[in-house]
Amino acid sequence: MSRYAIGLDYGTNSCRSLLVDLDTGEELGSVVFPYPSGELGILTDPSDPHVARQHPQDYLDGIVAIITGALSQAKAVRPGFDAGEVIGLGIDTTGSTPIPVDADGTPLALKPEFAGNLNAHVWLWKDHTAHEEAAAITATAARMRPQYLAKCGGIYSSEWWWSKIWRCLKVDPAVFHAAHSWVEHCDWLPAVLTGNTRPDRIKRGVCSAGHKAMYAREWGGLPDSEFLASLDPALAELRGRLYEEAFSSDTAAGELTAAWAERLGLKAGIPVAVGAFDAHMGAVGAGVVPGTLVKILGTSTCDITVLPNSAQLGEVPGVCGIVDGSVLPGHYGIEAGQSAVGDIFLWFVHHLVPDSYGATVSEKFEEMERRLAALKPGETGLLALDWNNGNRTILVDVRLTGLILGQTLHTEAHEIYRALIEATAFGALTIIRRMEEYGIRIDRVVNTGGLSLKNATLMQIYADILGRPLQVAASEQTCALGAAMFGAVSGGGISLEEVQRNCCRMREVQYQPIPENEAVYREIYALYKALHDGFGLSGSTSDFSGVMKELIAIRQRQRA
Amino acid sequence: MSRYAIGLDYGTNSCRSLLVDLDTGEELGSVVFPYPSGELGILTDPSDPHVARQHPQDYLDGIVAIITGALSQAKAVRPGFDAGEVIGLGIDTTGSTPIPVDADGTPLALKPEFAGNLNAHVWLWKDHTAHEEAAAITATAARMRPQYLAKCGGIYSSEWWWSKIWRCLKVDPAVFHAAHSWVEHCDWLPAVLTGNTRPDRIKRGVCSAGHKAMYAREWGGLPDSEFLASLDPALAELRGRLYEEAFSSDTAAGELTAAWAERLGLKAGIPVAVGAFDAHMGAVGAGVVPGTLVKILGTSTCDITVLPNSAQLGEVPGVCGIVDGSVLPGHYGIEAGQSAVGDIFLWFVHHLVPDSYGATVSEKFEEMERRLAALKPGETGLLALDWNNGNRTILVDVRLTGLILGQTLHTEAHEIYRALIEATAFGALTIIRRMEEYGIRIDRVVNTGGLSLKNATLMQIYADILGRPLQVAASEQTCALGAAMFGAVSGGGISLEEVQRNCCRMREVQYQPIPENEAVYREIYALYKALHDGFGLSGSTSDFSGVMKELIAIRQRQRA
Question: Mean pLDDT across the stretch A368-382?
């Protein structure tokens, strides 16, 4: 008899499933469902580029499509496949992605009276409207509850739970007051599948609670009422309609209801794991253990590592989240990330690459990669900052923007693309250096996510800039794989160690840093860091008068 | 009986003629000849983006095409037209654009043994290979002959005469030693037409000599031998094969030879004026007088004004040239400029604008202009530096490069185009402010050149940023018009004042600054100036951490 689990991974533009054989790691089915609403699934507001919302109906339509699709594929691949042998279901999502819900747990956006009101919809992680609220929360916490900030990098972000909810209260009190409670996307879907959507019955995950809602057991859960009331009394009042306790994903959120089991073709009563964020489950799917950094390279990037919760670990400034149990039970989950990586490349290819590179987006990428691969480090003479969507780690500031310098009258699109890739790698190096400064050992880097699988040129540039060998996880769906693994483990019949051992594989290809490239990139990184600190650190003063000249000197040396 | 003159204007990518009626200002013929060699007439070297050379044969082929063409047009337009009533010919060119020639004045590039050797060709103004030599000349002059620097803005440029000749000596001594002399493009063409190509018979213009070769009557002409020998003894030796005296363009370089008269269909013996640079003759064609700044808006930009040479005028730091008689006889010609303006827009449209804006370059420009005209100042959130080809005035530094910041994931090409236009206008404002600081009054700004005629959106942005009304010269060929005017005046039968009165007209359209736009641009200019000084002034330190946030704040205010 076989044992299977299904993981569901809800991303920024689509959701996908993975059906895995828990004993062999074989992946038998995977289906993608692009969200039909808005622009690539995102509801935007032309008058404010910070707005990014989603429609909860897209999530529900996705469940059926991706699970039934994966089961069909499994039947085709393995004739004797029996859906009754699926022993658990796990779900990860983006976050912090809060949903305003009524007393039954129904999202306000699904109610006719709120149709068309973006504030009643899902506030997607990359919605940056709440930067004023984030700044006020940071200032208030610094004054009243510095311990809250210590665990989230010293700065509370506009991408997070309380900033967004408070923003809603300010700009659309009608929506705020109509919401009985708010639920993270990753907590709402397990609640739906297990029939536990009533807010007081939803099992909330410690991953989202700890990383985004300032939840910690050591201060009694969510931020206290006095603190919340000093932001706004309505937030203190909301606290009582949220939750007292949050759980790690080796716990079940409940059992699959008969109605859903029927619709999906699964066995009723199988466990659905407590939800968590995509990167955290992805890190587990990629085999995270202490000393390993898992980089999930997608539209944005998450960098995840773990440390046994017996270790002494203080505040790490600018590292967004350190939460007990958010990745592996018994370990601190340590999360960092870059607000845009693949998104910067997509922005560039959509808006600034002429058709001489190709007619389609993928032809343009291919031709640019072919041409930039022929360049040596520094040959472009360009240097960029990777801040088109702000900087999450280590500056934690959404009110930063992109920068590129070094352009001549000869600069071409593929050279700028190379500079943008390098900028994201310099951003990644800045994160690793910060972790190491504070005693978080990184022996090994495992990469996962689309870019690590598809873009060998990018991976080599990353190896040269990070200055260490890079491995790539074999699974193309590590987030969904991690979710599936937690689905299995939450039923209690199999341990996480065993599932990781069976299912986490590496690709044969490894990217080794090339010493002469490393040396040039060390020089360029010093310039990147100067711009990073000069534009990013309040009150810093800089002498930039040598930056352009040094880049020209490196370019001349590299071209010679 | 009518009086006509012909002006020839040799630009970066093409040359053109203008045949003008000196009594009415009517323009009867004008023909363009695109240089056939290289890329748009420029010979480049893929291994060094600083190389820009030209082929002298292109210049010769052009003469015939554009004069005979203009005469044909005049005959068509005015049936009684008689080419015998053309009383003079004048020529302007780009510069400093030196040509190595043999003892007969034949360019080395036209001799078989140097065919294909870029160093034996014409060193086009925008060739930037000689930046090391320029820096050494600046340092040596600062030590030995500070008076040489005082008149050229305090920094000798890699675009200029001695830098390029010295560079040639260093990188290709065979070419240097084969050259009996060197001649500016603007001096060589009148010499060709008047049969005076033997280097000792060429009448050199004071415009090129004074602005680019550190020539001044007060120190006995060209830099002295001791100074040149301290650069390289071979340069001191070359001095004896150059010239002792230089002339303003109201002087004739000689008389049109019978052979050329025959080929061109003109009367033999008419005067050909001493040559000068395009911008200087263009300023005269646009009606420059004291208090008027003429801006020639093309691939690069020249800003020209004049001051009676009886005025007290000290050094103006960073203003490249102040030369007695280089524009109007009896006046200091004051020249400033931006190394790339139209060239930046062309670079952008060729390399970074997707076909969604249109299939051709002009469709892309049109669509971008349509879309950017709908934006308010500051709405893009972007800020750029206009240094893709270095900065001529007021930093005089080719080792500077472009910069753009403020990009989000939503930034589109037309927004960047707007930021690039604004950057060039901020650069223009920086020049005017520097002149005014040093007592050069600017009451009136007259614009000429392609951009001033074709791009009303750009002109309005310029008016808003410069904060003063802008006029546009009526002639589409002010450089060729100025050349024609000098051709007439060099014969002695008509005064420059009379010709300016008859021929310099303004368009009816004037661009008035819009007060609310001016106010926003004053704020953004402060940020531009901070970046300008921070990246451009050696040893300056600044706090840049507010720049991105201030741009976001302005964007939000303007969009609201």
Answer: 98
DSSP string across A419-483: HHHHHHHHHHHHHHHHHHHTT----EEEEESHHHHH-HHHHHHHHHHHTS-EEEES-S-HHHHHH
- DSSP per-residue letters across B43-111: EEETTEEEEEEE-HHHHHHHHHHHHHHHHHHHHHHSTT--GGGEEEEEEEE-SS-EEEE-TTS-BGGGS
> Mind listing the pLDDT tens digit for each residue in B94-143?
999 999 999 999 999 999 999 999 999 999 999 999 999 999 999 999 99
Neighbours of B367 (CB within 10 A): 16
Predicted confidence at residue A497, as pLDDT, reads: 92
Mutate: best of B158, B361, B548, partner A, most A CBs <10 A: B548
Task: State which residue of chain A sits closest to B339, comparing Cα positions.
Answer: A409
- Report helix, strand and coil shares of chain B as percent, to nearest 5: 45, 20, 35
At B180, which amino acid appears? H
Q: Are residues B408 and A400, on separate chains, in Cβ contact within 8 Å?
A: no
Q: How far is B139 from B142, CA to CA, in rounded Å? A: 5
The burial of B186, by beta-carbon neighbours within 10 Å (0-12 exposed, 13-18 middle, 19 or more buried), is given as buried
8 Å CB contact between A214 and A136: no
Query: pLDDT-derived band of residue B450, with 50, 70 and 90 as boundaries?
Result: confident
Residue with tokens 């699934």: A41
- Min Cα–Cα distance to chain B from A352, Å: 5
Burial class from Cβ neighbours inside 10 Å (0-12, 13-18, 19+) for residue B66 reads buried
For B345, name the nearest residue in chain A, comparing CA atoms only: A409
Query: What are chain B's domains?
Result: 4-277 (3.30.420.40), 342-432+515-559 (3.30.420.40)
pLDDT > 90? residue B311: no
**Sheet with strand A444-448: strands edge to edge:** A321-324, A331-338, A301-308, A292-297, A444-448, A470-473, A506-511
Phi then psi dihedrals of residue B515, to 5 deg: -55, -40
| C-alpha span between A187 and A205 (Å, rounded) | 7
> pLDDT tier at A345 (50, 70, 90 boundaries)?
very high
Task: Give the position of tokens 């009190």.
Answer: A173
What residues of chain B lie within 8 A of the CB of A388, using their CB?
A: 407-409, 411
Does this model's pTM top 0.90? My answer is no
Strand, helix or coil at B264?
helix
- State both tokens at A445: 């880097």
Copy the structure tokens of residue A353. Answer: 């690459």
Backbone dihedral angles phi then psi of residue A328, each to the nearest 5 degrees:
-110, 140
